[in-house]
Design goal:
338 residues, 60s Ribosomal Protein L30, Chain: A, alpha+beta, 2 domains, Jelly Rolls, five-stranded antiparallel β-sheet
Length: 338
């Protein structure tokens, strides 16, 4: 798996050892609650909010010595959530893998099967105790959201083991915060009443280890794609860090199938002579090709070309347009059978 972008993913780094209910938003680093719901934090350091034994049941931590607990379903649409910060914003068009571990608390009366995750460019803060509905989110200005709905095949009833929940999604770009919970009201929540009545009229889950990292990016074959993060300054052909990361994603995809080849095409703006721009565009495509070779891709699977200022995407009369034209494109295709 790639680097986990979630800060403090298993809730081990805390400001205070928990000693009371509803303490999640107070005691943890990089985590908060987006509403007035009172999410709980459990840690082995505590007598009152301990691990493995606490007022909601008994469960060892999946990782380390801590986890959280919250209501995924409760009377009158009451909900609890967690909101975490990512180490860096997500990138536009990139496929990411999301996962976390759940265990139903023994004192729950209900179990649910669907779970929701919301990514946002800014943190959320809404003064409600009920669910974060689409209507509530629509009232928030200046924040962009990416929703990930995880539809379970069966109800999450395991009270002994941790169950991994995961999904893949494509980022819109610039998402920096993650919120986990149930964004549906009670009427829309698929739930199951447990046979034996417990102390809690609802579905209360323990959660541990949140992961967000780049998954395997896929590309449509025989279509032109732009290296969105490979940018060049005027009269330059050097690759930046973000560009190298994007090239790595393309490399990983190519290495997943040895029958795939790539054609790389470089371009310039219209400043300078045609011959000079043609040479510069070749150097830009070669910079990408050489990086793929350095990563381990066989050279015979790569073709590179330069087209100078041909086929502009933007207006060469202004700088914004010229920046768009200083680009590298690629086409991935299946190798022809001999």
């Amino acid at each position: 798996m790639s680097q986990n972008l979630v800060e403090n993913p298993s809730f081990e780094a805390f400001l205070e050892c928990p000693d009371h209910l509803g303490n999640f938003g107070e005691d943890l680093k990089y985590w908060s609650v987006p509403t007035h719901g009172t999410t709980d934090y459990f840690n082995a350091c505590s007598l009152s909010m301990g691990v493995p034994v606490n007022f909601m049941g008994e469960q060892t931590a999946k990782f380390g010595e801590a986890y959280l607990g919250f209501y995924m379903y409760a009377p009158e649409d009451y909900r609890e959530y967690i909101q975490g910060e990512l180490k860096e914003p997500l990138l536009h068009g990139v496929t990411y893998t999301l996962s976390f571990y759940l265990s139903l608390a023994e004192n729950s009366d209900y179990a649910v099967r669907d779970f929701d995750v919301l990514f946002s460019t800014k943190p959320i803060g809404v003064k409600i105790k009920k669910g974060l509905s689409k209507w509530q989110l629509s009232k928030i200005e200046g924040n962009d959201f990416t929703s990930v709905e995880i539809l379970g095949d069966e109800f999450m009833t395991d009270q002994n083991s941790w169950v991994k929940v995961s999904a893949n999604f494509v980022a819109k770009g610039s998402e920096r915060f993650i919120t986990i919970g149930n964004f549906k009201n009670n009427a829309s929540t698929r739930r199951q009443r447990l046979a034996k009545e417990k102390n809690v009229n609802g579905a209360y889950y323990f959660l541990d280890m949140v992961y967000v990292g780049e998954g395997m990016q896929s590309y449509a074959l025989d279509e032109t794609h732009i290296f969105e993060n490979v940018h060049f300054n005027f009269d330059e052909f050097h690759l930046g860090k973000k560009g190298e990361q994007e090239i790595m994603r393309v490399y990983n995809y190519l290495q997943s199938d040895s029958t795939l080849n790539i054609v790389i095409n470089g371009y310039t703006d219209n400043l300078g002579t045609s011959s000079y721009n043609m040479d510069l565009s070749v150097k830009r495509s070669m910079a990408v090709a050489n990086r793929l070779i350095q990563l381990g891709l066989a050279g015979q699977r790569i073709t590179w070309n330069g087209f100078g200022a041909e086929q502009p995407l933007g207006n060469n009369e202004d700088e914004e347009g010229r920046v768009r034209n200083r680009r590298v494109e690629f086409i991935i295709s299946k190798a022809l059978e001999e």
